Amino acid sequence: MNPDERRRELGRLLRSRRGSLRPEDIGLLSSPRRRAQGLRREDVAAASDISLSWYAWLEQGREIHPSAGALGRICETLRLTEVEREYVALLANRASRALSSQPGGDTSAQLNMVQRILDAFGETPAMLYNLRFDVMATNASARTIYGADVASCSSWRRNMIWRFFMDPGRRKLYPDATDDLAIRNLIQALRLNWARNSSDEMVGELIAELSAASREFEDIWERHEVARLSIVAGRLLPDQSAEPLRIQYSRLCLPTLPGYAIGAEIPSTAEDVAMLHRLLVRRA
């Protein structure tokens, strides 16, 4: 994300959050004659103790350099969460350091070790993602669920988000469609990775591709939701399964491999463990 994109994204985020609040949310009286939806710019400026023109320039994406104090007051006014504040700091170049897209040290040796970790998950599907959620490595169980090509195909087809929106066959795996919390969390984390990664355009390319090709993705992306990778509940409906498999999507960041994460799909109950086992045996 280049500096111009950062400023524009910051402005879009501020406008989105301003529009989602009501005057009473920040201690202002709401007049019955008030016609504007959400907060007005002057509401945010006054509550944040900054000038209206300066705040307007910030929303417009102009090249200004807000102080940490001013940004903090705006975040407080707009009731931003901790991770949203981190995102604002990244967009305004106020973060202490950006996430490098390349790991240090002997990358090949570290990735070989990750493959051994994935294989150690046994019947639990496990995959290695890069920062835009391309699948870089898998274990046998993940290949059984998602297809043998999940980490070996070219172009966008190894990307978990792209396949969700653009591959009808893959989409059938997700009975909850766009309400699936796992894909929503990937998109929220993708936005954070986009701001963290200043030297590589790979995340921006995926966003542009999906925004142009999928109205569903664009609608979710325009909500400006941001979050870290987390453990979320979900359901998968593998081909030939009579009922969904209930799982906990567990995402684990790797300190020695910045820009990579392990995703494991843990069956939620003993019944789901047994269901997954039967499925793997049947497909072996």
Summarize the structure.
This protein has 284 residues and is an alpha+beta fold.
Structure description:
This protein is α+β, with helices and mostly antiparallel strands and about 280 residues long. It has helices at about 5-20, 40-45, 50-60, 70-75, 80-90, 105-120, 140-145, 160-165, 170, 180-195, 200-215, 215-220, 270-284, and strands at about 125-130, 135-140, 230-235, 245-255, 260-265. The chain has 2 domains: about 5-90, 434 Repressor (Amino-terminal Domain) (Orthogonal Bundle); about 105-284, Beta-Lactamase, CATH 3.30.450. The chain is about 50% helix and about 10% strand. It has a 5-stranded antiparallel sheet with strand order 2-1-5-4-3, sandwiched between helices.
Task: Name the descriptors.
single chain; 284 residues; alpha+beta; Beta-Lactamase; 5-stranded antiparallel sheet
